[in-house]
Amino acid sequence: MTHDQLEAAVPLYAAGALERVERQALDVHLLSGCIPCRTMLKEYQSVAVTFPFGLTITPPPRSLKGKILSSRLSSPADESETQPPSQPSLEPGQWMNHLFPPSSPPATSFGWALGTVIFVVLIILVFFGWNSSTYMTENMEKLAQLQSQAEETGSQLAALQQQLSEREDTLTLTREELQRRMAELAEVRDQLIQREAELEELRALLAEGSGRSTRIP
Amino acid sequence: MNTASQLAASTLDPKLMARVAKGEHQALSQLYDQSSTVLFSLAVRILGNGEDAADVLQEIYLDVSRKVVRYDVGRGIPMAWLITLTRSRAIDRLRARGPRTLRQIGPSIDDTRTSQIDDRHTGPFDSQADQELRNLIREAWANLPQIQQHAIELAYYEGVPDTEIAARLNQPVEEVKTCIALGMSHLREVLQSYWQQDEAV
After folding, report:
1. What CA–CA distance (Å, rounded) separates B148 from B140?
2. For residue A48, how many other CB atoms are within 10 A of its CB?
3. Chain segment A51-105, per-residue pLDDT in tens
């Protein structure tokens, strides 16, 4: 409900014409601290409580007073002090504590005190709500920053992984080249050993040939 | 309400309520004398019979004296508090009877002729302050259109919500809301003017 709708409901509230849900909505609005609506309600309530003064005067039975006073005397003064106060079902909160004339409410009333306490609690809740929303906004910003940082780090990590992969490939190629060179070297060594063996054989043949020529002459 | 006598119902002293709560027999007696006629009239208007109305009044005075319900000055003037309490209890009792029976809609706030008959009753309600207030209310009430009177009566004296009032009066709900708001607004203007005048005196 908008404020205008709630304000329009104030005279109906004072007359007792609102449905429970509407009454509760207005109660909440009043407890939230709307001063114009509170003032207006007090004025209308002051009007409503004058209605019985315009009724047909019907005096109570003569016996009623005696009955009440004797009932009061027959029960201990404090017998029901511990009883919980009965709450009429129509009691629509402290806002229906009718006042007339409107100027009469004292500043230290229970209704005002309760209203003030609830108002303060609401302010605190709103403050904490605002504070936590600010805090959440800050956290969201930090989270976004962290996410962007994480994304950046992830891309860096991917680049490093790619470089590492390239290095591994290079290393594999180098290892293969080395193995190939080792094999060639081993082949060259074998050829060298073979040449040395052939050289030894030739040397032996040469020595044998020079011994035969000295005996011929 | 400076013109009021000490016994005017509309000018109940908050100190009297405190004395009643302390258990002073004399204070309870005085409270009854000052307020019972207005409260009984209200209860009879709501409940339609004197027997139930007497039960409601007995319950209220005993609860006040036994501190089952407590008055404090923050709740406005004592008579307003007692009227609110009486209305609530009486309507509770009315509802407890079961399904609401359609009651005849008619003038509950007296016209001049009726009040002349009833005003012969002597008692605290005859105080000058109460009479002034009563005459003012009756006059202001008589100036309201009939549909406004009926709508406010159903709400105040039977605790009927606006949707049900609309059904009973065969009017759209918005029309009923407007009627009540206009009626209450008119009465507020009249009473505010009276209170300002009275304070000036």
Report:
1. 12
2. 26
3. 999 998 899 999 999 999 988 777 654 444 444 444 444 444 444 444 444 444 4
Closest CA to A58 of B25, B186, B159, B125: B125
Q: Identify whether the C-beta of residue B201 lies closer than 8 Å to the C-beta of residue B128.
A: no
- Nearest CA of chain A to the CA of B72: how many Å? 8
Confidence at A215, pLDDT banded by 50, 70, 90: low
Cβ atoms of B121 and B38 closer than 8 Å: no
Amino acid at B77: I
Taking the CA atoms of residue A184, residue A190, residue A194 and residue A200 in that order, the dihedral angle to the nearest 10 degrees is 120
- A197-206, B63-72, B86-95, B116-125: which has the minimum mean pLDDT? B116-125
Q: Report in angstroms the alpha-carbon separations of B168 from B88, B148, B165.
A: 22, 13, 5
Amino acid present at A199: L
A64 → chain B, closest CA residue: B54
Phi, psi of B40 (to 5 degrees): -65, -40
How many Å apart are CA B199 and CA B201, to the nearest integer? 5
How far is Cα B159 from Cα A15, in angstroms, rounded to an integer? 9
> DSSP letter at A50?
T
Give contacts of B 156-185 with A, CB under 8 A. Answer: 156, 159-163, 165, 176-177, 180-181, 184-185
Residue A174, token pair as written in the block = 């180098």
Q: What's the CA gap between A127 and A149, in Å, rounded?
A: 32
> pLDDT grade, residue A118 (50/70/90)?
confident
Number of CB atoms found within 10 A of residue B61's CB = 25
Confidence of residue B184 (pLDDT cuts 50, 70, 90): very high
Q: Note whether B129 and A100 are within 8 A (CB).
A: no
- The rounded distance, in Å, linking the Cα atoms of B91 and A89 is 9
User: Is residue A166 pLDDT above 60, yes or no?
Assistant: yes
